Amino acid sequence: LVTSILTDSDSFQDVVVKIERSTYHKPFLGGFKNRITGVEFHNAASQTIPKKRPDKGIQLFCRETQTVFEKNKPQQTKNTTSTQMTKVGLYVSNMTDKLLSPGKYLTAEEYHKRRLDAVIVIQTYFRRWHAINVVQNLREEKRLRLAWEAQEELRKKKEKEEKLRREHEQRLNAKTQEDFELLYHALELWRQEEADHINKTLTGPERQATFCGLLEREAQLIASIGRHKLNADEENQQKAVLRFLNKCARPKRWKTYDGKITEMDTPYTLRARDLFEIYKSILMNDIPKEERIDVLLTLRSTVK
């Protein structure tokens, strides 16, 4: 079938449309039939051939699975027993027989009441056991909480004492810039307290004289801190030199693929190690005179 399609405002294009004729009878899916002409008008139809489900090799629909067959068959136990009763001409002893008497008849209400009472008893003991466990757990948690609070209080007290001891140690043996800042801060606080005390208690010439004495003591303390700072700077410089030489003398280290650490000495690290040993030897002052001379000769040859 050839049909024309409007592509632009004034142009048409012929398109070939293939029509597949169905080879099977279309099912009636609803509609109506014209009684005069006999034409059937279907509500829906499709030209697409339905796909067939692949054969799985298993029979899914079978009449035997939908049919119930019933039969009656008696069964007999393998152990056949018999009883013998007393009769004319036969005596059977009844010495081993048991006499059974019926008990009290238990009604349904009595049975259910007895079960309810038993359930109440079980629940009572279970709730008692559960309450005991809850109380014991609460006591244990309270004991652990009190022990933890006591331990935390002791830890905080120790930390506070350690902090005070460390600050006192830093003030006595100041090494870093922070330590000296703490010293200067403490000195400033002391000066302010002394000045406030002088302003509250003294007046006139006596106040001026006391301020002069306070100024002299402050200058002495600042000078003492300055001398201590010079000594600390010299010691820190010495430690920095030792750290630098030790770092240069360390062998090269790297981590291999299996996680192990490999070390390797290079000519530079060996040379730095020799210089480091010479430097440490020169720093020692408590060695004999002959060894000191040998160290100085080694230094001389190294410098050359």
UniProtKB/TrEMBL annotation:
Residue span, IQ motif and ubiquitin-like domain: 234-304
Coiled-coil residues: 147-178
Protein origin, superkingdom: Eukaryota
Database matches in InterPro entries: IQUB, IQUB_helical
Gene Ontology CC entries for this record: acrosomal vesicle; motile cilium
Keywords in alphabetical order: Coiled coil
Keyword Coiled coil among UniProt keywords: yes
Pfam families reported for this sequence: IQUB
GO BP terms: cilium assembly; flagellated sperm motility
Protein name: IQUB protein
Organism in which the protein naturally occurs: Atlantisia rogersi
